[in-house]
Amino acid sequence: MNLNFSQIVSSIPFILGGLGLTLEIVIVSILLGLVLAIVLAFMKISRSKLLIFIADFYTSIFRGTPMVLQLMIIYFGLPQIIGFDIHQFPAAVLAFGLNSGAYVSEIIRAGIQAVDKGQKEAATALGIPYRKMMAKIILPQAIKNILPALMNEFISLTKESAVVTVIGASDLMRRAYLVGGDLYSYMEPLIFVAGVYYVLVMILTLLGKMLEGRLRTND
């Protein structure tokens, strides 16, 4: 069977109309996940066994269950408990943000612990408060060291965002599926969307390398 991409040309604007939603979900989820990850990372390196247990338990839940299951629990299951429906966008952001926070927290924790202990001791000797030391000295260095790992996580999140199609969100994947249903030919629109995701990933990869190179130059 020959592929005929000419039949989807008129549908390309409709498919690309889902790009905005895809990017919005990814960007907001990354921001939510990063904030949550920083909090969890500090809990994991704290001296409180309770905080460490809570952070580790949280991480194990989100790392031990499928992303699509988490999304479906939030979108389909949570309304049963709270008594009202959740819109597709906040459901997706919540699921991806909570999931990303679990993974990124481990990355940040490792980055913080990799910073030379001598710098912590010097800051303490100078009387710098713990919070200020972490915010101004330790965390910036940790972020710089773990930037490649963070970018890989953000790239993974960009690709995994396609699962929002299971809750009917009108993203790239959903629109490609709808076009395929109208044309009774799914391969062409799906290949087109695969190309769009590939371009997005390549752009993120390039931006990550540029940022990493700039940080090294500033060292």
Automatic annotation (TrEMBL):
Q: Where in the cell is it found?
A: Cell membrane
Instruction: Indicate whether Transport appears among the record's keywords.
Output: yes
| Main subcellular localisation | membrane
Please list every transmembrane segment annotated in the UniProt record, as residue ranges: 12-43, 50-78, 190-208
Q: Name one GO cellular component term.
A: ATP-binding cassette (ABC) transporter complex
Q: Name one Pfam family in it.
A: BPD_transp_1
Residue span(s) of domain ABC transmembrane type-1: 19-208
Q: Which domain of life is it from?
A: Bacteria
Q: Does the keyword Calcium apply?
A: no
Keywords of the record = Amino-acid transport, Cell membrane, Membrane, Transmembrane, Transmembrane helix, Transport
Q: Give GO terms for biological process.
A: amino acid transport
Named from the GO MF annotations, one term is: transmembrane transporter activity
Q: Which Gene3D superfamilies match?
A: MetI-like (1.10.3720.10)
Topology relative to the lipid bilayer, per the entry, is: Multi-pass membrane protein
Among InterPro entries, the record links this protein to: AA_ABC_transptr_permease_3TM, ArtM/GltK/GlnP/TcyL/YhdX-like, MetI-like, MetI-like_sf
UniProt lists the family membership as follows: Belongs to the binding-protein-dependent transport system permease family. HisMQ subfamily.
Give the PANTHER family listed for this entry: GLUTAMINE TRANSPORT SYSTEM PERMEASE PROTEIN GLNP (PTHR30614:SF20), MEMBRANE COMPONENT OF AMINO ACID ABC TRANSPORTER (PTHR30614)
Protein name, per record: Amino acid ABC transporter permease
Naturally occurring in which organism (per UniProt): Gottfriedia endophytica
